[in-house]
Amino acid sequence: MKKIFKLLDYPLVFSLIVTIIFGIMMMYSASSIVAVKNYGYSGDFFFRSQLNKLF
Questions:
Q1: Membrane-spanning residues where (predicted)?
Q2: Contact 35/43 with Cβ under 8 angstroms?
Q3: What is the pLDDT of residues 1-55, one digit of tens each?
Q4: What is the pLDDT of residue 30?
Q5: Contact, 38 vs 28, CB < 8 A?
């Protein structure tokens, strides 16, 4: 297990995680406007829908 942690490129892993979190926030903010304006749903409708499909 220690060997695996030594092989990790920590700056790359950190930047990947930050990019994923940033992308999720952008998708949430874009879909919340669409849900409210076009469909009349609550702002977090698509987010909750995707979470239900994920788990």
A1: 12-36
A2: yes
A3: 777 777 888 999 999 999 999 988 898 888 888 888 999 999 888 888 888 987 8
A4: 86
A5: no
Looking at residue 24, its amino acid is I
Per-domain boundaries in the chain: 2-54
What is the C-alpha to C-alpha distance for residues 18 and 47, in angstroms, rounded to an integer?
19
DSSP-assigned states of every residue in 1-55? -HHHHHH--HHHHHHHHHHHHHHHHHHHHHHHHHIIIII---TTHHHHHHHHHH-
**Residue 55: C-alpha distances to residues 2, 19, 49, 52 (Å):** 31, 22, 10, 5
